[in-house]
Write a structure and sequence with these properties.
single chain, 157 residues, mainly alpha, elongated, DNA binding, RNaseH_sf
Length: 157
């Protein structure tokens, strides 16, 4: 716990000015009417406030860009190449992949393959849906099973 009162902003300003003139901590403390340790603590506190330098190259994306990359990849199911084309900074697709891999929460999962729907495939689907559209009284009795085996008696056979 501190024994004395804190240095005021005026005293801090004077101490910095005296220090810039090359005066010693003892001389500054005597001029301000404070203890020499208070001046030493002032220098130590101001030195520890400086943020340490980060080594390495700076990333070209801001936080909002990274959030946008994840939004496009997860919700819009876009590839890294398509995302790279949309970004203003014009990164390479490998940079986008590196950003996506950096997350602990969003992991890569291979998509399930789906058949390519051509107009010839779509027509029978629409006809099937139209056939059953107005048969609302039959829906409670209808089971679409996709060849799934249902065991209604709860027996093991």
């Amino acid at each position: 716990m501190p024994r004395g009162t804190r240095l005021t902003q005026e005293e801090i300003g004077k101490a910095k000015a005296f220090s810039d003139l090359g005066k010693s901590n003892r001389w500054i403390a005597k001029q301000l009417g404070r203890d020499e340790k208070a001046i030493r603590n002032l220098w130590r506190a101001s030195a520890s406030r400086k943020t340490p330098k980060k080594p390495g190259r700076r990333i070209i994306f801001k936080r909002r860009d990274i959030r946008r990359i994840f939004r496009l990849a997860i919700h819009k199911n876009m590839t890294s190449r398509n995302i790279a084309k949309l970004m203003e900074a014009k990164p390479s697709h490998t940079t986008i992949l590196r950003v996506l891999r950096s997350s602990k929460f969003a992991k890569y999962r291979k998509r399930k393959s789906a058949p390519f729907l051509t107009p010839e495939h779509k027509r029978p689907r629409v006809n099937f849906a139209a056939k059953y559209l107005n048969k609302s009284h039959e829906w409670p009795l209808t089971i679409f099973s996709d060849e799934k085996k249902f065991n209604l008696r709860m027996s093991k056979t």
